[in-house]
Design brief:
- This protein is mainly beta.
- Among the domains are: 42 residues, no CATH class; 87 residues, Macroglobulin (MG2) domain (Immunoglobulin-like, Sandwich).
- 2% of the residues lie in helices and 51% in strands.
- The chain has a five-stranded mixed beta sheet with strand order 4-26-25-24-23, with no helix packed on it.
- Strand 19 and strand 20 form a beta hairpin.
- The longest helix is centred in the N-terminal third of the chain and has 10 residues.
- The protein is globular and about 80 Å long.
- It starts with 22 loop residues before the first helix and ends with a strand.
Amino acid sequence: MRLLFVCCMLLFISSFPFAQQNREEKVNQLKTRTDIKVTEIEKDLLKLEYPNGKVLLKNIGDYILNTQNKINYSPTFDSTIIDLTTIDTTLYYQKYKFWQEVPLTNFDFSHLMVGDVNNNGKTELYGSRKFFETPTEPVCIYELDESDRFQFKYQYDSVGLSWNIYDLDSDGKQETHFLGYSGDQRFFSKETDTSYATIISTSFIPYDSTYQVNDATLGDFDKDGYTDLLFAKGAGGRDMHIFEYNPIINSFDSVYRFEIYDIGQAAVSGFSIGDFDLDSKTDIVFGTGQGFVYVIENSDNNSYTNSWYGMVETYAAYIHCWTNDIDKNGKPEFWVLGEAFYNGVGITRITIFETNGDNSYEQVGRVDLIGVFSFYAGTMQAVDIDNDGTEEIAICIDDNFLILNFNGNKDHHTYEVFYIKQNELSASSENSVYFGATGNDLFGNGEISILISMGLAIDTGAGGIQLKLFTQIYKPDSTTSIENPIIYIPRSTELYQNYPSPFNPTTSIKFDLNSSENISIKIYNSLGKEIRTLLDNYLPSGEHIVQWNGKDNKGNILPGGVYFIQMIAGSYQKTIKTILLK
């Protein structure tokens, strides 16, 4: 199988770089957050306990590939590389404008819960308040008023994290689902069709409340008419659970538990849910701290099996979403976002999977965000930003919010930056972090607004800090069009020296095309023998990058030595020399 690595057209000219932090700087910043408990449970493996109860394991050592696990690539596998340390954000700022700030968040690795529970056509926001020296308050409801400003409407008692808006008991009325201060899953119902959900309907603790529930998700996964509750066991737990609502007892029964079999320390988080292998059965995808990916499939009423597992080439595979056939080849996709350090450089790696048979999946694409590793923010959402029928991917990671736009074709997953927003407070040396973001149609007019939840810390002296929690909302700028991204077209076609060189095991090869061309990039050994075809395809104009992993066309690892990289595009031809180290 020949692996094809093609980078999408990059949309920037370096001029306004992000401030990049190295590993030590990021860990030192983490230690200033006195509200986060950090424990090094083994070398380079941190256990992070967040104020909302979420517990994650983060490996801050350089990534080491698990060679015992084979990764199944599609023959048309595509790779997009976006360097966020050099991207020019001024190319994108005009697409959205700041609208208003709301004093609510849902804490680290999350965003506000959005809905219209009272059915009055006015969007509601659910989250917690904290303003510096004041204590963190329970979840509040803010609602749009007649002047389109979000105003306080209601505060719950002793619930701290917003989970879901869902019709739990199938009575046609939505319930709200929160995490209670005592560790219970708490559901509130409505008194009337036009009221908020403020009456406690049921409350239960799945197991010992010392273990936090992560990523609580509601649905009818076995299609039996009863609501299922899916979650991962927190505090570094190795298992995921499914409980089903039982209307007779007005509580939940346990129907399924799956414990992962990663070697060593592990943690479970994140879910994608759909019928990904097209067999009319619900598939549930989740990832682990070591980069393993599991699929649990519904097999019968209240019955599930582990139908597949694989891996991604990164750690902390905790963030997930899914798309409905973004490349129009008849297959839905699921996306897995993880992050790790590679030779000291933080990289957020997003891997795209499709089915290649019943209960079987392969990697069809990958997006690398260079210079990004996050201890705070981590959300990914598929949303049709421009209403063209194809979803975009909205990502909040570290101090970056960006939207990726599909610019490939059938069976080819390449992406470009549609929009990017930097945390301006952090860029101006304030101690501020993003938590997460969501895109929502707040007015029911088809326009997607962006809600970025964040925190601002001030030093009170003696190692103490005070936090302000808030969400900034951005609306599409009606004075500009957001239908088409800005595209940079190089002045000339050019092959650049690969980086790094010398290299081991992987190097990146950048080239420019000033017009669309049939292009080939091949590798030759010192005797002039062709040993690898990296690229043989028709590409649009723009900046591109391909990667070479030091292997030949048969997948054999090549010996160290001198190799030559030749690019031919139309009448343009150039050869460069590189050295593979062993």
